[in-house]
Amino acid sequence: MYTNIITEIDLGVGIITLNRPERHNAFDAALIGELSAAIDLMAAEPAVRVLVISSTGKSFCAGADLNWMKSAAGYSSEENLRDARGLAEMLRRLAQCPKPTIARVQGPAYGGGVGLVACCDVAIATFDAQFSLTEVRLGLIPAVISPHVIAAIGERYARRYMLTAERFSAAEAYRIGLIHELVTDDAALDEAVGEIVDALLKNGPGALAECKELIAAVAWKPLSPDVIEDTAQRITRLRASAEGREGMTAFLEKRKPRWIAQG
Ligand code: COA
After folding, report:
1. Domain coordinates of the chain in residue numbers?
2. Rounded CA gap, 132 and 45, in Å?
3. Pick from 51, 176, 179, 247: CA 20 to 30 A from residue 240's CA?
């Protein structure tokens, strides 16, 4: 089984907990491999309707393991590239997971840790969380995380924080849109995550997957005839789907749709 993460599934919620606290949950090849495998399993598991990314220890995630990064520098260029693709691919899997994802952030999230937060659909943090895109300070660049981070905070703030590598507070992360909600402590974090989970569990599972694809398809595109046609095609398909029909019928019949636990 896994040695760097803990996974559990409970009442529709899949939780992947980074569990390498002695290295502040820094990514090495083993952690990346386990995360990729667990994200795939959660994505395919019908019992999982929402995925939460959590962590043990003092930090949410200290980004790439610098011992791993340093040893990759000694690989052949092909091996070096394969290794880098592993991290890029893990982040893609998380960003494109068909289930909604929530980052439960406490403590520092640096480098790839910011990437992990940015890949999630919803991010909630405690006030003690701290963020930094430290890569340039190490003579590196935030390459594989950049599409996700720029999608989350926009080019303007990416320019500042990717170039300065300054540490920024949870309040600043909230202000620039990396974090959606700030809470005081761990108990409040669990409560806030629980509220988001409850909201998500009310929604059609198929609609959520389709909605994520819709956002990815439409974001940043000019309002061209192709985009307009694509959106019309999508709603045409969804309102004729079994889930769409059930959702509308349930509303009109003043009952819960079948995907919500009855009672
Ligand atoms: N890669 C490898 N090891 C790391 C690591 C990383 N990204 N981040 C922390 N560690 C290790 C430290 O080297 C240290 O190891 P040691 O006990 O063998 O000396 C151990 O974790 C504890 O770290 P330390 O810095 O003493 O703890 P701290 O509580 O003072 O600070 C951090 C924690 C996460 C804020 C700090 O370690 C840090 O800034 N890490 C670098 C994060 C980073 O820049 N990541 C981006 C990489 S691209």
Report:
1. 5-201, 205-252
2. 34
3. 51
